[in-house]
Amino acid sequence: MNQEIEAVVPLLRNSHKFVLTTHVNPDGDGLGSQIALAERLTDMGKHADILNHSPTPGMYLFLDPNHRIRQFDPNRDAPAIANADVIVVMDTNQPDRLRSMQNHILNSKAAKVCIDHHLDPDPFALHYIIADDATSTGELTYKLLLQLDRSRITPLIAQALYCAIMTDTGSFRYPRVDPEIHRIVAHLIECGADPVYIYHEVYEQWTEGRIRLLGEALDHLKTEYRGKLAHITVTREALKRTGTTEVDTDNFTVYPMSVSGVVIGILFVELTDGVKISFRSRGDIPINELAREFGGGGHKNAAGARLYNSYLEDAEARIIKAAEKYVR
Question: What pTM did the predictor assign?
Fold first, then answer.
């Protein structure tokens, strides 16, 4: 990883036009990493466009006071991708997760850089800054920015990176959190990140609809295999009834995992084109292997998958059955 960072630094220093993007339904890690890198590139006199397939969720709008992020419009934004010197894909290494931007990016002659902390990257980029043992893409972006200029972590950059790391570590409670990551966030606080403000914006600004949606999901919580697996479901009807979207289910997996004795937690979200599944596990249970059985992937204890053109009840039955061997 350090060698890749050293290879990417000259590319960033010697190029002028950049496009930064992240996965569909972006989270705090992808968005915070984008903002941090874009702010630094702008400070260096570069032109950096942030283009995403999906709109920015409301809880993360505070990260972007300069309104850098745009939802991709092919008529307006395709030329920026075609004419970029460098395209940086952040927090995903699978181009199909860029959705409407995928073909534009793959067809661009720009040098492509992938910064991510997930396994099994697709071969589309010139450079890969990837470490699956990193807590977050924010952690990798921090290390890249230090190589660019150690003295240039502004308060806005510090805020963005702190949010990226905080959200992808579950507020610093997941297994990969170690002394080094605490030293990193301590430095970000010294550079101007406000932990109280950031936590409040992300976790304490729920809409009434989102709280009602969680209540409905928890009301139907079920356990399997003598209480070792817990799962909750969000239906399309519940989303419609509460005026919420898929984005509002972010972090719902914490609740089935909070049940005493549970070692696997699963969230099912029914969508118009299929079912989204989020998996969590404890200890040595490789939940990413279960996700891979259904076309997904992720980390050992946190993974996801999407089953397109699948009925909710069928998806639930198949996945719960497949999970039995991991519980055992």
Answer: 0.94
